[in-house]
């Protein structure tokens, strides 16, 4: 039974980029004309108003502006947006407010303006400091622009910032990958996302695969990068996320522990718990910017689905098992409204195989070191039949 509501976050999607990267499967669209900046901000606030009845009386603990490229919008637009949000729903006094930014779309003045709006965490999509790799990845910046953006962010007062780094890049050597990590560390970020390039469906790289390093070399790259991060006091708290002490992404951790979140913007997804109805529902907004902007105020939701028991178990574990510390049994029960036996019968096989550790004394459940390597296998065995169709 759902006896309490989880923490609430707000995700805001900005669907435009200067150009689409060949590996990207996010809902992003290349700019073909001027961005309708003021119209989009107005529609975002209307979208939020439409969703407010779902969360009456609740406050937002974190905001994440993702994309696409949110930093294509002006500081003035972000000021209007955040002021409008504050006028409509209460924010925690220490709310974490993150904006994604691409190095090719930010300048010193704009970053200072973003910081003045109350945005207090920046996530820079660096990916690599190697110009050859950046070009192959379709990025609009080079290493010099990346370095300038990091330095400008620090000068603007962002003392909490993430750097995105990819490894396993086309023709990447171990030394090149290690150099990327060393360069990133030299700027003293508080957080580094360190993840492998994957060939996602419906991307250019999937249709025309580039020459990627072999499995053994990729594994060595991963371990060398991880070793460097550990040596520099970074803690791995999620499969691909590393942070200095207490600087993990609060927004993402809320996702991973099955918290609630509103989603506004083209293609944004949301998850909301309803204590009165004893239900957990996912809904999503219309994906294409033209559709999102042209629909009337009541028509932003493209679809929704109430989660059934098998979906609740799967989706909770899909997220929570990514955390290296795992989760408490009590968290599973309060976030899903299910009893412990629903979890136990789904994890029995993984526990017997040494992939998941269930500490009966502390009721802490987490993947083992081996389980982290075979997380996809664990989840495939849990996948509900109705999601296989």
Condensed summary:
This protein is of the alpha/beta class and 389 residues long. 38% of the residues lie in helices and 23% in strands.
Structure characterization notes:
The chain is an alpha/beta fold. It folds into 2 domains: 8-253, Aldolase class I (TIM Barrel), CATH 3.20.20.70; 313-382, Winged helix-like DNA-binding domain superfamily/Winged helix DNA-binding domain (Arc Repressor Mutant, subunit A, Orthogonal Bundle). 38% of the residues lie in helices and 23% in strands. The chain is built from 15 helices and 17 strands. The chain has helices spanning 37-51, 75-88, 108-116, 131-136, 143-155, 174-185, 204-207, 215-231, 250-256, 289-294, 309-320, 329-336, 340-352, 369-373, 375-380, and strands spanning 8-14, 16-17, 29-30, 60-67, 91-101, 121-127, 161-167, 191-196, 235-238, 241-243, 260-264, 269-274, 279-285, 301-306, 327-328, 356-359, 364-367. The strands form 4 sheets. A 9-stranded mixed sheet has the order 9-10-8-7-6-5-4-1-11, with helices on both faces. The protein has a 3-stranded antiparallel sheet with strand order 12-13-14, with no helix packed on it. It has a 3-stranded antiparallel sheet with strand order 15-17-16. Helix 2 (75-88) packs parallel to helix 3 (108-116) and helix 6 (174-185) runs parallel beside helix 8 (215-231). The longest helix is centred in the middle third of the chain and has 17 residues, at 215-231. The chain is globular, with a radius of gyration of 21 Å.
């Amino acid at each position: 039974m759902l006896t309490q509501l989880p923490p609430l976050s707000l995700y805001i999607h900005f669907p435009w980029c200067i150009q689409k990267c060949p590996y990207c499967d996010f809902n992003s669209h290349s700019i073909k004309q001027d961005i309708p900046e003021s119209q989009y901000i107005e529609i975002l606030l209307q979208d939020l108003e439409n969703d407010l009845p779902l969360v009456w009386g609740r406050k937002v603990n974190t905001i994440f502006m993702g994309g696409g490229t949110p930093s294509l919008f002006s500081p003035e637009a972000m000021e209007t947006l955040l002021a409008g949000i504050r006028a409509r729903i209460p924010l925690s006094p220490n709310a974490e407010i993150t904006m994604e930014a691409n190095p090719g779309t930010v300048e010193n003045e704009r970053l200072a303006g973003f910081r003045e709006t109350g945005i207090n965490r920046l996530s820079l999509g660096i990916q690599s400091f190697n110009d050859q790799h950046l070009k192959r990845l379709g990025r609009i910046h080079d290493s010099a622009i990346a370095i300038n953006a990091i330095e400008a962010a620090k000068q603007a007062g962002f003392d909490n910032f993430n750097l995105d780094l990819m490894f396993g890049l086309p023709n990447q050597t171990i030394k090149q990958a290690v150099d990327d990590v060393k360069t990133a560390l030299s700027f003293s970020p508080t957080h580094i996302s360190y993840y492998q390039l994957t060939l996602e469906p419906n991307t250019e790289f999937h249709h025309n695969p580039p020459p990627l390093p072999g499995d053994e070399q990729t594994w060595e790259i991963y371990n060398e990068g991880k070793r460097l991060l550990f040596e520099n006091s970074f803690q791995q708290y999620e499969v691909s996320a590393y942070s200095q002490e207490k600087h993990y992404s609060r927004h993402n951790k809320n996702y991973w522990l099955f918290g609630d979140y509103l989603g506004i913007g083209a293609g944004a997804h949301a998850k909301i718990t309803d204590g009165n109805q004893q239900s957990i529902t996912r809904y999503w907004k219309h994906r294409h910017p033209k559709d999102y902007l042209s629909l009337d105020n009541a028509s932003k939701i493209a679809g929704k689905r109430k989660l059934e028991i098998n979906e609740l178990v799967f989706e909770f574990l899909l997220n929570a098992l990514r955390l290296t510390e795992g989760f408490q049994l009590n968290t599973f029960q309060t976030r899903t409204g299910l009893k412990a036996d629903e979890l136990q019968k789904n994890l029995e096989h993984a526990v017997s195989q040494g992939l998941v550790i269930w500490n009966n004394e502390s009721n802490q459940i987490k993947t083992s070191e081996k389980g982290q390597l075979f997380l996809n296998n664990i989840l495939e065995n849990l996948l509900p039949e109705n999601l296989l169709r």
